[in-house]
Amino acid sequence: ARLAQLPEVASGEDVELQVLRAEVVSPAGDAVGLVDGEEGEVDAEILEIFGEEAREELRNIQRVYPNWREDRGDLESLQAVRRAFHTLKGSGRIVGASNIGEFAWSVENLLNRVIDGTVDADSAVLAHLDDVADVLPTLVEEAGQPGGPDTDVSHLYDRAFALASGDVGSAAEAVPEPAAEVAAEPAPELQEEVAE
């Protein structure tokens, strides 16, 4: 079974898509319920399907993104990456995995701007997409385990929308402060162990 594809919504960049009803279709064509009981928890089977689909899209991105990064004229690869983020957005929203769903939306939106030529695939965009590719496996893993902690990707979300709008200054501001540097020398008790 695969999550049913929602129709593409023609909307402005600032319009939020709200999923009012979604269903999953089994290979036999039967609709499968999305939630268990009245508590609104995602059905375990649906979550498993989402996990499989998310891992498949992650593999697609990991396979195709390097092709486009090396040859930015490869529109087919760029569109495949954009489609994968579109699928992660929709599927994530359907199962309530809002962290990956909204994150994927920010990347999809940026890639839409690259495809339509309003944003150049310059070094800032490529650096951002490299950061996205680095964190995506963690987000896919977390999305399959509801109720656990979510990695904070708000800076990447903000940077994607800033880059998509052409606001390079805001994109630079969306880079988080680096963690405090660790002392170059090990702590004194560790120095003794290293010397032995």
Question: Rounded to an integer, what's the Rg over CA atoms?
Answer: 20 Å
**Ends distance:** 59 Å
Main beta-sheet strand count, sense and barrel state: 3 strands, antiparallel
Work out the number of β strands: 5
What's the total helix number? 7
The percentage helix is 55-70%
Mean pLDDT: 77
* Residue windows where pLDDT falls under 50 for at least 5 positions: 1-39, 177-196
Shape verdict: globular
N-to-C series of helices and strands: EEEEEHHHHHHH
Structural class: mainly alpha
Describe this structure in words.
The chain contains 7 helices and 5 strands, in the order E-E-E-E-E-H-H-H-H-H-H-H. It is mainly alpha-helical and 196 residues long. The chain has a 3-stranded antiparallel β-sheet with strand order 1-2-3, covered by helices on one side. Strands 4-5 form a two-stranded antiparallel ribbon. It is globular. The N and C termini lie far apart (59 Å). The N terminus and C terminus are likely disordered.
Chart the SSEs and their pairings:
Elements: E1 2-3, E2 24-25, E3 31-32, E4 35-36, E5 41-42, H1 44-70, H2 75-95, H3 98-115, H4 123-143, H5 154-164, H6 168-173, H7 188-195
Antiparallel strand pairs: 1-2, 2-3, 4-5
Helix pairs in contact: 1-2, 1-4, 2-3, 3-4, 3-5, 4-5
